């Protein structure tokens, strides 16, 4: 296996173009199939343009929180964390191994920068709701909480407990990104965004690979309301 | 007499006033009693509605954000229904919380199986790190609540509408020695202690009392052991602590009788006292079971 690490581009570190090579360190191949992960572009835009968090501030109370709820297939996440300096790229080839911190589902106790351990679906949004409530209770109005879920994951009823309550609590620190790659078995008639809009959330629907559109949607103002961004990944994209 | 749940609702507002890190999370149950506290601390007294998965997850999220959460509802909806949230959002994330239940095994005898959770302590036994309090008296419940609120670990406080006449715990977390005898040891847990004391009158047995059952105070059991025969009397699923007795007495040939709520569904309503009799937990039946097992 080729375990040569891509060269970091000076003080700016790795860029978006380096992600496929970082991912291939985990897959051990050069075909980069996994670089097509539905979450890759959202994750990159979050860490590159939106989140106010860095390896140096990952322990600060005032940091933005990103919770990866869709914990299955975390290679894109690990690649972005490596690109941004949270984890050492030298850890990537060990992916999934007994001695590696990088499992097939992330563990916050093992992965620097990971806010939650995930894998079982339907836990991230409720945890993010509690985190946003906790920040509010501490009087911290600046930090924002982002959670990424999948459209299949939205099947889990626990999400809907959180969606309804977050609106009632006017939890405007809370941001949900739903990566919609049409994997929900029975679908969401009317579109996923209607499930949030009905509950009074601010909603946006954007192409899931369009960095400019993702950034605009993720940073759109939504005073007094939680915010949902549906990032659409078309079949074959 | 004041119930443990009433003590919980009277003490918690004081704790909220004293510690800005403390938060109380509810799912409608007992929310009316906490309404004055919610009005005063709207960001720290959160009633989520009837959403028990969210109850545990929000508690965990609060802890992730640096708060100390107390989550409360009936035992069946606090431990059994959202058990995966306890396993993953609390234990697996590695954050702490205080879970305060009401109703326990058969307090709501008239409500039937849906409102009875005799398996709660056994379920928590499948997870590491839980302190499990089974107070027998409101004073014990208050002390445990105050200590739990000031800590940062995983604590379950199992409030019951049944209670002992007086508090029997002497040292927090340790079994209290109510009586020393030679023919064996009876461990009475929480609200069943008065029945056990009555059941063992005149018998030459050691009687220990536990208001905290996890961690299991094996040291006191060993230190007071004469004949290595042990009877557990637990107000939840019978035999829940049998494995802990086994661990405490590793290397000692011993016998254990686990008394408590029977596994089979009663499918009866009526009163808690009737349920106690049906499970063999009234003083007369306990006495017969203890004498039969210990030759006391």
Strand order of the largest sheet of chain B: 2-1-3-4-6-5-10
Number of helices of chain B: 12
Tally of distinct domains of chain B: 2
Shape call of chain B: globular
Biggest β-sheet of chain A: count, sense, barrel?
5 strands, parallel
Principal-axes shape call of chain A: globular
Comma- or semicolon-separated keywords:
heterodimer, A: about 240 residues, alpha/beta, Rossmann fold, 5-stranded parallel beta sheet, 5 strands, about 10% strand, B: about 300 residues, 2 domains, 7-stranded mixed beta sheet, 5-stranded mixed beta sheet, 12 helices, about 35% helix
Short characterization:
The complex is a heterodimer of chains A (237) and B (296). Chain A has 237 residues and is an alpha/beta fold.
Written overview of the protein:
- The complex is a heterodimer of chains A (237) and B (296).
- Chain A contains seven helices and five strands.
- Chain A has 237 residues and is an alpha/beta fold.
- The model of chain A has no long low-confidence stretch (mean pLDDT 93).
- Chain B is of the alpha/beta class.
- Chain B folds into two domains: 4-158, Thiamin diphosphate (ThDP)-binding fold, Pyr/PP domains (Rossmann fold, 3-Layer(aba) Sandwich), CATH 3.40.50; 176-294, Rossmann fold (3-Layer(aba) Sandwich).
- Chain B has a seven-stranded mixed beta sheet, with helices on both faces.
- The longest helix of chain B is centred in the first third of the chain and has 15 residues, at 4-18.
- The radius of gyration of chain B is 19 Å and the shape is globular.
- Classes of the chains: A alpha/beta (237), B alpha/beta (296).
- Chains A and B meet through α4 and α5 of A and α3 and α5 of B.
